[in-house]
Amino acid sequence: MAIWFQRIFLLLLVSCCASSDFLENPDFEAPPLNLSKNSNASSNAFVLLDQNSTLPGWTFQGTVQYVTSLELPDAGHAVQLGEDGKINQTFIAKGDDLNYILTFALIPGGQNCSTSAGLSVSGPDSNAVFAYRQNYSKVPWQSYTHNLGRLGNGEPINLVLESEAIDSDTNSTCWPIVDTLLIKTVGVTVVQDSGNLLTNGGFESGPGFLTNSTEGVLIDAVPSVIQSTLWQWSVIGTVRYIDSEHFHVPEGKAAIEILAGTAPSGIQTATRDTSEGSRYNLTFTLGDAKDACIGHFLVGVQAGSASQNFTLESNGTGSGEKFGLVFEADKAAAQISFTSYSVTRTQEDLLCGPVIDEVMVHSIGGTASVKPTWLLLLFALLYVAIL
Ligand SMILES: *[C@@H]1O[C@H](CO)[C@@H](O)[C@H](O)[C@H]1NC(C)=O
Ligand SMILES: *[C@@H]1O[C@H](CO)[C@@H](O)[C@H](O)[C@H]1NC(C)=O
Ligand SMILES: *[C@@H]1O[C@H](CO)[C@@H](O)[C@H](O)[C@H]1NC(C)=O
Ligand SMILES: *[C@@H]1O[C@H](CO)[C@@H](O)[C@H](O)[C@H]1NC(C)=O
Ligand SMILES: *[C@@H]1O[C@H](CO)[C@@H](O)[C@H](O)[C@H]1NC(C)=O
Ligand SMILES: *[C@@H]1O[C@H](CO)[C@@H](O)[C@H](O)[C@H]1NC(C)=O
Ligand SMILES: *[C@@H]1O[C@H](CO)[C@@H](O)[C@H](O)[C@H]1NC(C)=O
Ligand SMILES: *[C@@H]1O[C@H](CO)[C@@H](O)[C@H](O)[C@H]1NC(C)=O
Ligand SMILES: *[C@@H]1O[C@H](CO)[C@@H](O)[C@H](O)[C@H]1NC(C)=O
Ligand SMILES: *[C@@H]1O[C@H](CO)[C@@H](O)[C@H](O)[C@H]1NC(C)=O
Ligand SMILES: *[C@@H]1O[C@H](CO)[C@@H](O)[C@H](O)[C@H]1NC(C)=O
Ligand SMILES: [Ca+2]
């Protein structure tokens, strides 16, 4: 019993505070050494790295160029991965069983290209390919995220980024530029309102935000919660992870804005410990991100075998409304999903959509809810008592 409490308290510590930088030269501001004599990094926007050059912190192969531009997130330097271009860096996992979540900036390497090469990002046993998306951000770069995997203390993590060409005509291909990599660790979150049967229903556990980013982080479709960068949620289509510093967030520091393009987009999770046949109340906040997204939001909500559509008229100024849906659990892990059916765009033609936050599932007539702060305090007191 005592061990159980101690364990929970330690897990609480891990999930609340672990977040730091692991990479050397993550923003490429440390310039390459031994550039060839006829290249001039201060005056050229693109400098090809040859076999005599070294890039601090990184190993590179193939066509890799060092980029200097004011259009970058840090108004400094980045790297472009050209034909067969590849960079990698190894760092060591610190702490037990943490997920290593990468956020990075992707910049399109040119205009009017017939094809754009993708960017492949890999961890020890994970891989995903990213592509710059037209009409998803006001600035000429976007933040993306990838879960490098769950690793134990001391394990090496080799982060590999490489270009992925789709077309054989490499002359008219635009090659990806990457900058400002950030690694955040996310631990096993057991912080919960004892009455709420959902984990991370407030979306506080997700990818890190880049310092100079005003546009949130785009999360691409990820069918498995294990590979997701949004703790306990899978993603359909594309969603934007938004921060309270730059958007209207109903509760806490982060929320999800669903961006539906040609196909519906959304998020999905499952409840813990619901009992088949029992009735539950799903409550959530539906709002807008204060990003000038004007329109009619239509969000389909599914809980167990119940489904219902909810609407919100958004004037794009940062609203939020609470809704509820009563359902009967069909199994112990009842599916909960939010899908946006409406396509909304700002006047600048940027995709935008409904914000979801504060998702909770409570048993109807069940146990009284205990506030998480009380729970934390209780565990802290017990922990101290045990010692
Ligand atoms: C590099 O460019 C800077 C500024 O344009 C210039 O002052 C410098 O002489 C150049 N160096 C070489 C080696 O060309
Ligand atoms: C690398 O350095 C060696 C020795 O200085 C030189 O002979 C060679 O041409 C350089 N290679 C390139 C690609 O600049
Ligand atoms: C790179 O530069 C350093 C110091 O200037 C020198 O010691 C080293 O030999 C150079 N390496 C190559 C491959 O030219
Ligand atoms: C943010 O941008 C400013 C200039 O726009 C730059 O000087 C600064 O280094 C950037 N910070 C980071 C962490 O990228
Ligand atoms: C890059 O990966 C190779 C193995 O593929 C490894 O030998 C090398 O040390 C890595 N580079 C860095 C900087 O970690
Ligand atoms: C791309 O195309 C537009 C319109 O066709 C043109 O104005 C612009 O100069 C082109 N940009 C480049 C880099 O070729
Ligand atoms: C992106 O927006 C521009 C206008 O800003 C529009 O011409 C273009 O068709 C849009 N592209 C997509 C893929 O929606
Ligand atoms: C690519 O460009 C080079 C030089 O500009 C040219 O020699 C080559 O034929 C072009 N390749 C294709 C497939 O267009
Ligand atoms: C579900 O929760 C909402 C919000 O707390 C509340 O207004 C509603 O009465 C609840 N429904 C039931 C059946 O308990
Ligand atoms: C919700 O709306 C979508 C799109 O109009 C529709 O396909 C779906 O059947 C509706 N669901 C319910 C439960 O009304
Ligand atoms: C936008 O909506 C909010 C809440 O629905 C309302 O208070 C506000 O007056 C509206 N603003 C405009 C400009 O319509
Ligand atoms: Ca939140």
UniProtKB/TrEMBL annotation:
What is the predominant subcellular site recorded for this chain? other
Q: Which domain of life is it from?
A: Eukaryota
List, alphabetically, the Pfam families matched: DUF642
Where does the record place the DUF642 domain? 22-184, 196-361
Please tell me one Gene Ontology term that the record gives under cellular component.
extracellular region
- Leader sequence segment: 1-19
* InterPro entries, sorted: DGR2-like_dom (IPR006946), Pectin_Meth_Modulator (IPR052437)
User: Which Gene3D superfamilies does the record match to this protein?
Assistant: Galactose-binding domain-like
Question: Which compartment or compartments is the protein found in?
Answer: Cell envelope; Secreted
Record field: transmembrane: none
Q: Which UniProt keywords apply?
A: Glycoprotein, Secreted, Signal
Question: What is the protein name stated in its UniProt record?
Answer: DUF642 domain-containing protein
